[in-house]
Amino acid sequence: MDLDLDQHLADASALIAEAADLDALGALDTELLGRKSVVTEARRGLGDLDPDRRREAGSRLNDARAALEGLLEGRRVELEAGERTVRLEAERMDLTELDRGRRLGHRHVVTQTWERLEDLFVGMGYTVAEGPEIEDEWHNFGALNFPPGHPARDMYDTLYVDYGDPLSTLLRTHTSPVQIRVMETEEPPIYSIMPGRVFRSDTADATHMPVFHQIEALVIDRDITFGDLAGTLEAFTTAYFGAGFTSRLRPSYFPFTEPSAEFDIRRPDGSWLELGGCGMVHPNVLRAGGLDPEEWSGFAFGFGLDRLALMRHGIDDLRELFRNDHRFLSQF
Ligand code: FA5
Q1: Among 39, 169, 216, 235, which is disulfide-ready with 163 (CB 3.0 to 4.6 Å)?
Q2: Is the Cβ–Cβ distance between 120 and 152 less than 8 Å?
Q3: Is 255 found in the same domain as 122?
Q4: Which residues span the domain enclosing 51?
């Protein structure tokens, strides 16, 4: 065999090392090991040799072929790794653009209102109480002086829960049932606020949602008068809204307060928005809460917390608060 295999391997090795990409390497593979390659041609020539030389030359050709395959494979691994690095580099995303430090979320405007009100009333000496969102008929209506079948129950479009006796269990329609729960568990004097989520089958519009929030206040002490109620509401309005906002009380009716009033706030455009109801706690309610109306008197009020947020921030439509549009909510 005239072929100088060592020289051929040395040349091939240099070519393989220079192959710039996988395509070039594929072409080299065909050139060095394919049908027309030097080693394949040489193998064809083996038949002309005598058996001893044929065996020896065949074995050298096999070694050369294996060496070439090894070199090609080594370079292929190198090139593949390089190409992956290039691809990853091209696909790399600049996550610093997210600027996580500054774009951290913040509390929803309703939660902010809730916490602000808690701070305000706690500052005035009130405690904070909570009650269940799924209530029994007694706490939501009966104990609050709504007799069974009384038309006043229609003031609320109540969502009943399919549990226990029919119409015995409901999603609370207001936070007033927590008044009863507080009277049941605490001794007067009571100065308490009760924020929470409430439910009515109201159709959503600019001032109504089927799920909304209220904040209730209950004061029970000796010799509490309507003047104390009016004074507290005035103090609250100034502290919460600041100067420039005015409020008014309108005579109203709630079965659980007597006398009762509605509390409105004047918007900057001059229109009035009803924020809540209030009144002196009805003697029947004190009795239902286990208190003697001869000894104790008190007032209560309940405001729409979402509407408070609306007023404070000059938002036109309650529904905007719950669309979860980040661009809108991030303003507050
Ligand atoms: C009540 O719920 C009484 N429990 C309030 C009360 C408490 C009176 C203590 C006396 C003593 P009313 O149904 O008016 O009352 O609701 C109170 C406030 O909740 C309303 O003034 C309004 O601000 C808010 N509100 C009522 N319905 C909705 C609704 N669908 N979406 C958003 N806010 C509402």
Answers
A1: 169
A2: no
A3: yes
A4: 5-91
